[in-house]
Structure formats: structure tokens, C-alpha cells
Amino acid sequence: xxxxxxxxxxxxxxxxxxxxxxxxxxxxxxxxxxxxxxxxxxxxxxxxxxxxxxxxxxxxxxxxxxxxxxxxxxxxxxxxxxxxxxxxxxxxxxxxxxxxxxxxxxxxxxxxxxxxxxxxxxxxxxxxxxxxxxxxxxxxxxxxxxxxxxxxxxxxxxxxxxxxxxxxxxxxxxxxxxxxxxxxxxxxxxxxxxxxxxxxxxxxxxxxxxxxxxxxxxxxxxxxxxxxxxxxxxxxxxxxxxxx
Length: 244
Fold this sequence. Notes:
It contains eleven helices and two strands. The longest helix is centred in the C-terminal third of the chain and has 17 residues, at about 225-240. It has helices at about 50-65, 65-80, 85-95, 100-115, 120-130, 135-150, 155-165, 170-185, 190-200, 205-215, 225-240; strands spanning about 5-10, 30. By secondary structure, it is mainly α. About 35% of the residues are buried.
């Protein structure tokens, strides 16, 4: 089972046959923390039938990457039911696919106005704000997302760390980056961010360690030459200080 803020038990179905007893037992969900944000919205239950039909059709067209059709269907859904938070969120993603960032931002804002505890628009908004280098907005958006759901979105901590690096708040950036690494140990880019953070905090050994980890984990990344140059500067400083 999957629910934000909970860890699920699992039941293995391997070896079961068609005529076996269909009662396979009970799946227990264990609460992980105080999670207020969700990936579904209570507004969906109140949507009229025609709005739901348009929404489902739009979501299906989006899955098929038929962006024009998906846009038309989702616009119909929110026109029929302006408080349809998940439809607004899906419409925002469609606009993003069509590189209509202004309307994507408006759609996410409408989604959050309809349901401020729906977490997906926060994630998408943070991504737009990061691409536009609006770091204070990124920090504020991800702070809200982390308060709503501190468990299921390591990308929120990742964006938050980058925002705070650019805002020169390195202690806050370090805390967020370490939490992102704890939640998503395979997200290699976090090591680069930590390397930059430690270099700015004059912990050059820590910076070198994390930059090397990133280069090892992602040798073909598009920014790998930049990171190698940063590592060379860090090692040059270490050498000048008589470090390792």
C-alpha cells in the first residue's frame, strides 16, 4: 500500500493460484511522522460527473502524450468545476509540456487556492522557480512543502538546499542537502551540492570528498567538467594549506 507519511507492510503473492482463498491477510500502515499534505484532494469527491469525465479523459490523453487534447479536456474539467485541485495540477503539467510556463504557474496557483494541502503543485512550482533562478521563491515554496510532508519528497529538500546555497545560507542548505541524501541516497547530484556547500564553509576536505563521490557516481553528467574544475580548485586550496 502507498500513502504519504506511512510505511507499509507487504504481503507476497508469489506462488498463489487462481482458486486460492482471495483473503491474503491485512496490510498494516505504520505512521512515519506528522504529515498534513497529500497527493489526492478532498475537492475531487465533490466534482460533478461531467467534470470527472473530462478530467479522466484529459489524464488519459496526457499519459498518451496527446498534449493538445489533454489541455482541452482538463480546461473543460476546471471550467465545469473551478475548485478541481487535481485537475488544475494536471493542467499545469500539460502547460509545462507545451512550454507555456506562464499558464502552468497560474494553473498551479489555482490548484493550491482550491486545496492548499495538495502537495504536487508545490513540487512543480518549485521546479519552475528554480529554472527561473527565483531562489527566494524556491526556498519559500519548498519550506511549505516540507512542512506539509517532510517524508516523501526528497526533491523538496534538494531544491531547498540549492535555493539556500544561492541565498548564501549555507547552514540551512547543508541541513536540507543532508536530509535529501538520507531520503534519496541514490540522488547523485546531492553530493555536488554538498561539495559546494562545504567549499563555501571552508571545509575543503569535505568538499573534495563529496565532489569526488559525484564524479564517481555520475561520470557522464552534463556538468561533470564543471565539477572537475571545482574539485581542482578545492584540491589546490587543500595543497596550499598542507591538507591531504
